[in-house]
Amino acid sequence: MRHNHSKLDVLFNKALRKYRLIEDGDRVVVGLSGGKDSLCLTELLGKRSKIFFPKFQVEALHVQTEGVPYRSDVEWLNDFCEKNGVKLNLVTITIQPDSKGNRSHCFMCSWNRRKAMFEFAQKNGFNTIALGHHQDDIIHTFLMNIMYEGTCGTMPALLSYSKMPLKLIRPLCLVPENLIQQHAEEVKYRPQQKLCPFEQIGKRREAALLFEKMQMLNPEVRQSLWHVLENEGKLVEKHHSSEIC
To answer: What is the pTM of this model?
Structure first.
């Protein structure tokens, strides 16, 4: 288990260096949902922020939702953040369904959470938003875009905005999900009180199953797909509008 923790640290720090995700003087807010991925990211950033360079500040934001049957133990999250030297902030929003019916429940929930994070970051002087998507998430998104959109794109490791002093980073971008799962079991992260009922349905679940089958056919397919994303410049991008993405 200790070996897994060391590998997690190595991949996390490699991502910070390789994609230049955090610069000296950054103020970082982590999207802390209460799931294993965001807990892991909060823990790693809290520890990394105590190192002299780059010197950055980090806080966490938990977005509570009304109208969605999804609950986290906020008291435990606060204790977790205190243990890792990270201040926890809370915001409550209401998720409304798409009035035109063009967007799925998952899309509307994700979009509203993201909007709340952007507003919190800009209002409170943060220039960096950190999200807990891991390498599997990024690859699944890539496969979804190929299958359903006919495009070669994904969630980048670094997304900067040309029209606002803000960047979005994914420091777990080089970390496979199974490594995070092993760490979560080792340190005994507390699971959410009530999971989202939409978690295991939809196109993302289909993409995850497809990726599993691809790995059975070729154990090196993870590296192959990652090389495509790097070669096509999809892991570091600049967004040229003020829209949330």
So the answer is: 0.91
